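Hi,

Apologies if this is the wrong queue. I'm a grad student, and the batch job for Circularly permuted type 2 ATP-grasp protein from Duganella margarita produced an output file that my downstream script rejects. I'm not sure whether the problem is my script or the file. Here is the sequence I used:
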Amino acid sequence: MPKFFNEMTADGLAHTASAEVREHYREFCGWLQRQSADTIERKRAEADLTFRRVGITFAVYGDDAGTERLIPFDTIPRIIPAAEWKQLQTGLVQRVKALNMFVHDIYHDQNIIKAGIIPAEQIYQNAQYRPEMQGINVASDIYAHIAGVDIVRAGQGEFYVLEDNLRVPSGVSYMLEDRKMMMRLFPELFARNKIAPVDHYPDMLLDNLRSVAPMGINDPTVVVMTPGMYNSAYFEHAFLAQQMGVELVEGKDLFVSDNTVFMRTTRGPKRVDVIYRRLDDDFLDPLAFRPDSSLGVPGLLSVYRAGRVTLANAIGTGVADDKSIYPYVPDMIKFYLSEQPVLNNVPTYQCRKKDDLAYTLANLPQLVVKEVHGAGGYGMLVGPASTKAQIEDFRQRLIAKPDGYIAQPTLALSACPTYVESGIAPRHIDLRPFVLSGKTISMVPGGLTRVALQEGSLVVNSSQGGGTKDTWILEK
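Support response: The file is valid. Your script probably expects a header line. Output copied below for reference.
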């Protein structure tokens, strides 16, 4: 009996002759068995060279070398059959809809607090809560225009939501580039398999952003706002702007006049209506948030409050993707939609609660402990993979600041066969689909599959040495 769900084989084995291959992988697996090791290695090298030439890299903060790295790309895809994707899509649309309703509610009537479902202090003391947004109406009541929801598979193959990313979710460029690379390397696979396309995502994103322009704007000007070329996700910012055919701007390229945002161009100022911003709230407007920010636009918040520009995602959206709010999302779905959640949360212990803290402290070697404001795989303890010293260090952190942490059981994440130095071996994966909210809620069939390349590791983040795979959704 395997200890984890294997995406390709029903018996948990890797790519071997005795493995019982799952039906939706059979066509690919038959093809794979006919490929020589030299052929696959040559294709891998070609992919690395192409990615480096194109500049598909990311920077790691705190890296002493200060160099950009390639995100390792694996040529064995993660394949999901149509029926499973339909269930995932239904659950994701439901979840993001409820999250948008929650953010609108806490900045307006606060019915979920009045109903006693979420304690008021969980909102007001949240580092991502922005009182400046209280009572402000945003276009179409949409706050999380782009959401990246992290999905994991565990147990006998059940899907769980691990995290909601609603601030500035990244990774979609790698989803698109991974697909382009697979089509370039192995065109015969796409002729033989009915794989749903993802290359229309930039068009969907642009349509989505245009649909939430301020009222009365029929032909909105959309821009992508980046902190600059030294940001770890700069490649993605430039990529999406280029793919959508819109300008990539920094804060210094924009200015406020007559309660309107303008972009400096060679032909003079041009009004900007929708800003797809890829920097955090704190840096958006030095007059409203951090006065030392040189990345933002002075006066931007006043234009936003007046409803004369749309920011995607909205200011203050992060309150809904904080890990201290995550345990309440199933209750949000029931409260706002009167529906049962389609996708389950991972069971979560809130360390601010006395009993949950006691359980966590007594079971640290078996649990995953996360900072409520942490991201990128940082600020967390994976108990089974930690030393006694690391566990004791986290114990002291928990005792000192219990409300800063949550704990979860260590899930046996599903694994997918992956090319590693020793050959083909199972490695643990997750999935980040991207959900777009505007006049409608839409998504391309697929997402970014991230893979933990170190044997036994459950941390898939690129900043922690993880890689990526193409994600195939099979059409019927």
